[in-house]
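# step 3/5: fold
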Amino acid sequence: MLLLIAVNTVLLVQYVHGAVHVHDGVPVRSVPGVLQADGLVHWSNGLLDVARTPNDDLVEGGDITLACILPQQYINCRFTSPLGEVYYVDENSVTDGNGNDVPNVYPWAGNDGVRSCGIVATFNSSEENWKCSLGPGPTYINGYISTAEEVTTGLRLPTDVTPLSYDLFLEASDSTFDDNGDAPIYFDGLVEIEIVSTTSKPCIQLHADEMTVLDVLVLLEGTELPLTEIGMDFQRTFFEVCVENGFTADLTYKLILIFEVDTLRTSYYQYGFYYKPCTADNLRDSKVCWFTQGEATNARNIFPCFDEPALKANIRVQVVRLDGYSTLSNMPLITSVDEDGMIIDVFQNSEKMSVYLFALAITDFVSTNITQDVAVWSSLEDKLEGRADYSADIGPRVLDFYGEYFGVEYSLPKMDLVVEEQKDLVAMENWGLNLYDPSALLVHPDQVKPGLSEERWLVSSVVAHELAHQWFGNLVTLDWWEQMWLNEGFATYVSYLAAEDIDPDNLPWGRLLVEETFRVLRSDSDTTLHWAMTDPVTSRDDIERKFGQFTYQKGGSVIRMMEGILGKEVLTMGLSSYLKANAYGSTTEDDLFSHLESAGVSAGVWPGTYQGSGTFGDIMKSWTNQAGYPLVTAVTECPEGLDGSCQLRLSQEWFVTKGDTNGEKRMFDIPITVNVLDSSLPVAWLSDSEMVLELPLEKYNSSSSNPIIINNEATGYYRVNYDDNNWFKIAAAVMDNIDLIRPFNRVQIICDLVALEGSGHVSSDLHDDITGNWEDDDQVVIWATEQCGTNYKNSKPLRRI
């Protein structure tokens, strides 16, 4: 195998002789969580098979069967119960450590005469996690079995082990699709991981999924340590390694794992390391290209690793490919070695990075580039037709814009933007190697012209979004998936900064307001649907939930509200400080809020008019840690018959249009801006259920005919309702002097009225009086009427993106 080429002499000897050779050499397709003919659900990786009674057959106080099966002969079988009791199992009995029979626990012999390490016990739903151990020694093979229907506990790796570096070698097969169009994925590899532990412990855990670990070595200063146990927890995708005398705190160890992946990917197979036709939809295309998808938790499907975003390390990779292809990775290529027609590409060591951002693309594509460091990779046909030219032009400009805007230069030596036909994804922001669906990267030169262009906008906005991640997500990474908005919310907001710089004709900020903010507001008032920007993830599958509109659209909208609170210049100062302080590290929202508050205090805009006792983080958590948003009701109270000063009575309520509140009342810290007070920053904060704001006589009085508009430029993430008198003034302005209402506030009024009529807060007549007379005065207003559902007489169709 070419795998051996990458292995140093010491490791080569170990690989040949097999320190712990735990596989019989027969490729086994991983079938985790599958009900098999014996009536048990099985998890398997070719080394070990664990099984238990299906959830549908579990009855409190009834029997549960638990089993572990090895393809090789074993002598000893024991189980450890969730309560820590150890049961020794043979063909005839289950005994405790004193040799006494364990009541109500019996051996399970397996099926068809195949002896298995199994027991039949009493099911107790409060006792979830079992462990079986098999082997003749000195190395035991452990299997972990949870009886929970969905594993929601113990999802995180221990925090006391840190990976320092990965040396990775991968060799993919020359593959094709089967007759059903499914992808038999086969590749093998070797990874050497340097680790350090802050505590002394017998075992360490890392991640591995859908793969067979063939051999494991643990080295300390070049000396191999005897292994005592190897464990697999398929449901949590943990791989455990235990050594004699344990791992000592503050010493640096090397883990060397040789592995293979042999599985069948059907339907949605675009995760881990996988292949697809290079340039054609036809699955019979003779050329297949290989790609990676590690986000969120699929780096563990590429190689054994510490697959959590905060566990950053340097990665160096070598890849075997066929002649006629080229390999791209996160870092530049150092050299290529030809071994009898098989090429080994060796790449530069990476910066400290999260493993979910590790990327490979093995393709037959060609590059289009204007600058040396940024290239767009596509088919030769697309290059010759000029479809890659626009991305090749804007890519370097976007990177330069972000570097200058935040005062933090792009941190890698190159950037590749690669075409990959995707299913449910539009693009992936891997550090230094972005993958894009063709529609999000390629655009015909005829469609690159001044004015509105949906095709050009899709490309410019997605490229700006993915390149924003090189700072927000890649350089500075969320600590854990529960605060995904630190990655995706910022990439959403920041992409509009770049889009305004490179593509202002497409009205980026109007699009953000209409297509992000007012779109997600409609969903966020539905308690059966919404969730908080920051909330716990309960399972590996639940992490995928965080890739939704309340992360992207609400996240970007709430960040725009932070801009409205601090001002764009101060927000930028805070973000620049945040990026510089946390480069190559991971953060929580508390880190972000601390930097923004410091910038606000330094610039004299925080606390400003805020008179509460909370920090900037405290007020922002009323938005990030709660689902939903408020409705602000503004009632103008003026003395009758007098040209006197007025008061503005403001109140808030949790705005819900669908679902049940279950009697809960939610309060938000709401930044209030008012058009007649001529301030872009909040003039007051509505933190309680109600407040009164005095309107200076020279600004607004009882004889004023102009309307009051709350929430200047619609920067605040909330809706506004008014008293009838003010609504009538708005209606008059719509008819007679539309310039009294700023364009973005026109969008706000249209979308708010639609929602308020639906919720019964305003009448249909009022809604029609205002929206029915709106002039076709602004493209953004047209978008608002389409997005928010108003039957606007002059509305024009606009393809959504």
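# step 4/5: annotate
The longest strand covers residues 183-197.
# step 5/5: archive (pending)
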